[in-house]
Structures are given as structure tokens and as C-alpha cells.
Amino acid sequence: GFKQRPKAPSGPVCVGAARREEMEPSSAKGKAQGRLLVSTSLDAKDELEERLERCMSITTSITNGLSEREANDAITAHVCKGPQQHEEVCLGLFTLLLTEPPQAQRCYRDLTLVNRDGMNVVLMKINQILMEKFLKLQEVCRTQLVWLVKELVKSGVIGADGVLMTLMKQIAGGDISIKNLWLAESVLEILVEQREWVLKSGMLVAMSVYTYLRLIVDHGTPNLLPFRQREVDFCIGLLRERFMECFIIGRDLVRLLQIVARIPEMELLWKDLLHNPQTLSPQFTGILQLLTARTSRKFLACRLTPDMETKLLFMTSRVRFGQQKRYQDWFQRQYLSTAESQSLRCDLIRYICGVVHPSNEVLSSDILPRWAIIGWLLTTCTSNVAASNAKLALFYDWLFFNPEKDSIMNIEPAILVMHHSMKPHPAITATLLDFMCRIIPNFFPPLEGQVRQGVFNSLNFIMEKRVLAHLAPLFDNPKLDRELRSMLRERFPEFCNSPSPPTEAKMEESLPLEMDNHVLDKEDGCYDNTDATFSDDEEELNNKGKKREFRFHQLKETYIEEPADITPFVDQLDETLKERVLQLQKGSDTETHCEVMQEIVDLILEEDFESEQMSTLASCLAELFKGHFRGDVLPEEITEESLEESVCKPVCLIFRNLCQMQEDNSSFSVLLDLLAELYQKQPKIGYHLLYYLKASKAAAGKMSLYESFAQATALGDLHTCLMMDMKACQEDDVRLLCYLTPSIYSEFPDETLRSGELLNMIVAVIDSAQLQELMCHVMMGNLVMFRKDSVLNILIQSLDWETFEQYSTWQLFLVHSIPLETIIPILQHLKYKEHPEALSCLLLQLRREKPSEEMVKMVLSRPYHLEDQFTTSILRHWAAKHDDLLGEHIKALLIKNNSMPRKRQSLRSSSSKLAQLTLEQMLEHLDSLRLNLSNTKNNFFSQTPILQALQHVQASCDEAHKMRFSDLFSLAEDYEDSTKQHKPRRKAPASSPRSRKGAAPQTCNEEDSVSSSASEEEDSKPKASKRKRKGVGSDSD
């Protein structure tokens, strides 16, 4: 913690001394040093943690027993051996710094001396931990990580601003827990102390203002007012000193300022913003200039923690509509259950509207639509202020909507929430329509005309793009009260007229609405656990009788059919760039396109290139090259020549230039910025980059460039970016998906092997030939799709997949050389009626294995059902092939499960009943096996270990079990151990005819026991001279 570290700051100071003590890691002293992450005994060893600890071990072994000077010389010499050794030492020192606070200063000093890459290895690892592991970090490591970021900033390390922005992203909105406040204070302390450094990065200035303006709202309680004042002072200072750098935030800056405008200092700034804009900056003409600027995804995304973002993206790309309740419940418990979390709903709604823009394929699938999540969020608002702010967040892009600059995707959720809520939740539709009407005169009276025009533009564009065929059924609906309908007619007369009288077309268009009503009648709510399925487009009802309809089918067609139109963008470029872009538009052959594209790349790499043009240029390129992103990427016949030819497209020129640069080159980051902007406009560019990095000779060994690309995008996270790109590839081109799979798994093992997300994408679309091809790749060593620490979790996840997907998954697993013991615990999750695919694959594999005690334990731990033959069938096979081994394991398990304290057993306490349940299961399975073997010549139940175990159990179990399993126990009726005195049995030796028939000829060790007369039957065999039967009649069945 801060206290343990020499010369380090003493920690947060604004919440009072007692709270400061609480914020510092209290358990650090008690925890064993060297571990980074909090984990339970059930968690598999984390691969990142394992690697970092290994590097730490290497580093300490180099310096052990050496003086400080000798140690420096030793690690310097080790670093010089090569890149791998350099990385080991840097990560080793980094890990020591995190886990050993007393050594932090020395480790940081050593790190600055020995690193040869400008701390790049460490910066990348910090970013990875922040994006993927921050919530799991031990408290002492979390504190140390913040300290390290502070030191990096103080040292002016290039790239520290990016790390600081990632750290800022971890400060959760709507959360005033001790940990979150500590993080918010720590980051603010860095920003205030290193203000001169902060001012050098325009993006950091804007991002920190956006972050702390948003957080001010959460810190209104009396004990947090001193901290809030520091946040206010910080924001005011930057807004007044660097307003045009904050201006890049766009219209959401106004939204955040409105919410805090009652704070005195903010009120003064607000008045200047409205009435004296020139006092903030000579280039600032007034609030309308800010309101017409769309907010970048980067800002909207920065107010969700990586975990929130991952969960939301999962819900909008993987969860089927109707199956969302458990995911929403989890999210609500985790993030929306406290009073202060009301403010988080605005962040979530702005993120969904502005960042989550599903592809046409997702829109036309049965994936949970955005409007349903927003509808659910609106229903969870419990205060009027929160509800009002949430509605403003939903309609915010409507108010100054410009079809040429803004996206249909930003305004589409609001209209669809109203449309789909009309039947099940008319109150939600009514309140949203009422808000839409009242916001026009009340948002900012001097701009009422512009707001009215913005809302009108939005509604017009919604109809033009056929999101809804008509607005009259929504605006003039009998479910709305008379006053609201009257206000809608007054505000929007153009949209309240009913469609023309019934015609053929009218009949077609009205059918879907009838269907919507029909479906909705079955279900009261579309924001809870609903099985309802809606048609999002009133035009689509071509498949009669089918429950699910395509959503936005016409929207997809509209986009595809439009010719390339760069008119709205090209005039914003400077003359030289504009000239090249127009050449691209006119040129026809690929070679000319490539030459012009190279010239464009050269232009943007010049020092005087204005970065403000990047977004506009990206819009032009995305529009001009949209034809390149249609059709198959992978050649029909894969040869070196065909692959090289396939990557000779203009857009690949950017990739090629990127591959030829050093990653620390400033030109590298400029090209990454261009790609990131392009990615926002054309998401397919992600998997096209992956293809280029695999297919092109020029990109050999450069696959790691994709990670830099992912971090440069608005997503900023390798895992999320990779999964979204592979999903886009899966939807567009399955052959390409299979082609990329080996490279993706080998280059990004941490992202692909830790969960079943990518695997599910693959098995959901491949055919049997592609499955066989992937299996061959595994056997040839080109592909690893499973690893020991995560395979069990992935197979458990796969239990919910389709039958072919499951069989494919098991085929791919079985072709790996992973011991079956690794995944045998899955048996506890398998139900015989629900999971036949997994059970049949396991059965075939277990058949080939020698039984270990763990295998037998798992097989016997399955609940007994008369119809479930899994356990009996595998036990029978083992009894035939490995009878002695199986006998020993069953004996050990029976005795172990029967060894509960006798007193507690006799008292029949609840714990003994639990113990007997397990024992009861084993006896049920053994009795089933006995019955199954009764008509065979198998002598499994005549083995000494089995008889000893049965006798042991019989001696201690209660009368009910003795009666229930009397046939089983009768097998050991007359057996006795030679070490004990013979005692007369209370029970008569005779048993039921079934048991005598089922009893196989018994063979006993002659030294240990006397032959029992019960073994003499019609088909009895000569007595064996050894303790166990060896290979007698083992395969008669």
C-alpha cells in the first residue's frame, strides 16, 4: 500500500482520515507476497499471473546474493542477450514492484535503467491488466499499480497518457464505494500534480474533463463535498484554459455541464458558455457550434468500465431475444442496485445509442435488440431526476440531428422503444412521446427552432430509412390520452396523418402490426423474461407461420444499394487531399487506386497534416471502398500467387505501410488513428486486417500489429475487438473464418483459449469437411484450441449449444492430447435427458481409458436414474476389461464414503444423511451393475476387495439400507476376513431367487478365507489360486 512504499505519497486525503485508512489495502500484510490476483481454490491458475511470476522468479534468481552494483550488472548483462531476456527482466521487475512494496523504488529505478524499448513491454502489460484483470488484483497490487502509473507520468514516459486514460476508465460511474473513491482521488491527484504534462495531450485533457464532469454528480453527499470541490476546480481550470481541446468532446459536453450547472463555479461557466462564448476561446462561436458536433465513441465508451462494456457487448451480440432476463438480473445486481447508481443509466443509454451499432446481419437475426435493453434500463429508474436524465440521454442525438453528419443508428433505439412498448408498456411510450414534445420548447428556448428542426429531421430520416413504415399508428394511437395526442398533432402534423385508404400495399403493411399485437398478447413484458419475438420492421411478414421475423431487412438493403457518395465529406478536406480522394472516386483500375492511396498515406504522414481531417478522410475512404468489403476475400484456390493478388487492394496499402514501420514511430500511431476511424465507419476492416497479416508475405511475423490496432480503436480492448471481428468474419465468410482460425489461436492464446466464445462462433457455422480440416490442423501441430486450465469451463459452456456444435466441439477436444482426468468433473453437470451429446462422447472416450480412482468417483457420483444407463454401461465395460483395478477403486471409495463418525451416524444427523446420500448413490449403481451382470459369466462381484468393502458397509449402515440393498450385501454374506473371528450371521443365508441367480461364482484367496458353500452353483468353476480372478469369461456379454 501507500504506507509501505518509501517516498511514495500518503494516499487519498479528501474523505477524512478514518476513511483513508479504510481505502488503503488492509489485508496486504496477511497475504502471501508474490500473488497478483485474488482467486479461490476452484479457479484455474491464471496464465498471465503464472507468466509474470515466472519472470519475477527468473529476475530474482539472477540477482540473488549479489550486491546492488553486481545485481545491476547481472540484469544488464542478461537483458543484452536478446528480446526474450529483455522482456523477462522488465516483466520480472514490474511484478516485483507490484507485489513487494518495500522494493518498489529500487525496482522502478532498475526498470528505467535496463529497459530498451521506452517501457513499451511494461506499458502493454499494464494496459492488459487494467482491461482484463483489474477487478481481480490483490489490494496491495492495485495500490502499487496506481503508484507505478504516477511514476511513469512523472518520468514523462511516452505512452503514459494512454495508460492513464485506461486507468481512468476503471473509475465506475454511480459508485461511491471506498475502492472506487480511492481510485478517483488517486487519478485526480496525478492529473493535478502533473498538470503541465497533462496539457501536452489534447485527448487526455478532453478525456479527464469528460470523466470528472460526469463523476461530480455522484459526489454530492456532505462527506464527499471537499473532494467534489477539487473535481470542480480541476474541470473549471481546464475548461477555461483549454476550451477548444475540450470542444472535441462534442454535444455531450453540454449535457454533462447542464447536470452540474447549479454548482456556483459551474453556473458562472455556464453563463459564459451561453452569453460570452468568446471569453472561453476566440474560435468558439456559441453553444450551437458545440451542440451540432457529434460526440466521439471514445468519450461515450470511457464512462463504462471494461467489465460493464464487455457485458453489454455480449448482451447485444450473443444473447437471444427472450433469454435476456438472467443477464439483465446479473447486471442489475452488479451495477444498478444502489441509490447512487441511478446516474449510471445515462452512461449506459448513451453508450448503447452511440457505440453499439450492430451489423445488418445482427439486426436481421434474433439477437437481443438495443431498444429492449434501453426499455429495461428505463423501467429500472426509481427517481424522477434519473428518469428525466435517462430520457434526455436517449433523445440527445435527435435534438440537433443532421442526416449528413449523424447516424441513423443513434436515433433508431428511441423510436423502436416507443413502437414496441405501445402494447405491453403504454406508459413508457406515453412518457417518451410527452418528453419528445416538451423538450423542443424547454431544452434551450433561444434554440427552439433548431431543436424542432432536429427532431423533425430525425423522424423524417426514420421513415426514409424504413425503420418504421408509418408514424401515425404511434402518434395517433387510442392507447394514448387525449391531451398527449392533441400535443403530438400540434407539434408533428406531418406525421400524424393516417396512411392512404386500404389498398393491396396497405394490407401488406398492416399485417406485421397485427402479428406484433398477436405475439405481444401472449406476453405482458418485453423488458423482462419474455419469449416474445417481434418484427422490427412493419414491412416484413413474408414467412407465414414463423415466429421470428427479420429486423431491419429493408435498412440493410438501403445501405447496400446506395452508390458511393462522398459529397458531404470531401469539401471538408484540404485541397491536396481532396484532389487525391476525387481521383480515387474517378479511377477504375485497382493499380491506379493503389498508387493514389499510397499518395494519400504519404500526405497524412506529413508533419503539417491536420488530424481533425482524419475522421472526414475515413468517411470518404469507407464510402469509396465499400465494394471491397463485399463478396469473398479468400481466393477459391489458395496458392501463393492468388493470396498475394487478393491483398492488392487500396485499403491494404494502409496495412502494408503499417507493417513496414517501427511501432515506436510517430507515423505508426497516425496510421493506426486512420484505421481506428475507418473501423468506426466500416467494422469489416478488422478481419480484413487479420487476413492481410496472415496472407501477405510483406506481413510475415507481424500478426501482433493487430493488438496495436485493437488498442487504438474505440473499443480499446484486444479481446472485445478480436471477438467482434471474428464474429463479423463468421457472418460474412465461413471459409475465411476457418482459414484465419489457426493463426488467431496461435497468435492470441490468452484471448481465444480462456473462453468458448470464439469456438462457439466456429462450430456454429462450419460443415463436416471444415471440421475435419481443423482436426487435421490440430494433429499437425498448427492449431491448439484447448488448454488444460480452461478446457473444462469451455466444455461446460458448450452444453447449451446446438447438437452439431457440441459434437464438433468434442471431436476437436478429443483430437488434442489432453488427459481425460482434466475434464472428467464435467460429469457432475451432465443430465441424461438434457446432455446426450456430451454423455455419448464421454462414454466412447472413457471406454478407451483405464479407470483411475477419480474417474470411478465421478462416474459413481452421477444421480441414479433407472433410465440413465451411462454409469452402468461404463462400469460393465471396465468390469470386463479392468476388473481388478475397478475393484480396488470401488473398495477405496466405498470405505472412504462409509467412514463418517459412528456416533453421528447413529444419531442420524443431517450430515450423516448427506454422507449416506453419496453412499446410497454408489450402492444404487453397484446394484444396477450386479443386475446387469447377473446373466453373464463375469466374476466381478466375487473379488475380495469388493466383498470386503460390501461387508464393511453392511456392518455400519442402517436397517433401511440393509433391506434395500439386501441382494447386493448377500454377495458378501458368508465372506469373512481371516484376521477376524467368525461370527454367526443374524440374517439367514438364503436370499431372494434374484440374488442367487445374480451371484457369480466366488473365488477367494485360500490364505485369507475359507471357500463359501454359497459359491457352489450349477455352473461353478474351479477355484482360482490367486486373490483375484484373471481374465475369466470377461467378454461373454
TrEMBL record:
Keyword Phosphoprotein (UniProt): no
Keyword entries, A-Z: Cytoplasm, Nucleus
Domain Ints3-like C-terminal per the UniProt entry, residue ranges: 581-972
Pfam families referenced in this protein's UniProt entry, alphabetically: HEAT_Ints3_C, Ints3_N
InterPro entries for this protein: HEAT_Ints3_C, INTS3, INTS3_N
Superkingdom of this protein's organism: Eukaryota
Cellular component annotations (GO), alphabetically ordered: cytoplasm; nucleus
Residue ranges annotated for the Integrator complex subunit 3 N-terminal domain, each copy included: 84-490
Subcellular location: Cytoplasm; Nucleus
Signal peptide: none
Region described as Disordered: spans on this chain: 1-33, 975-1037
Comp. bias regions, Acidic residues: 1005-1019
Keyword Cytoplasm attributed: yes
Family the UniProt entry places it in: Belongs to the Integrator subunit 3 family.
Name assigned to this protein: Integrator complex subunit 3
Species the sequence originates in: Cyprinus carpio
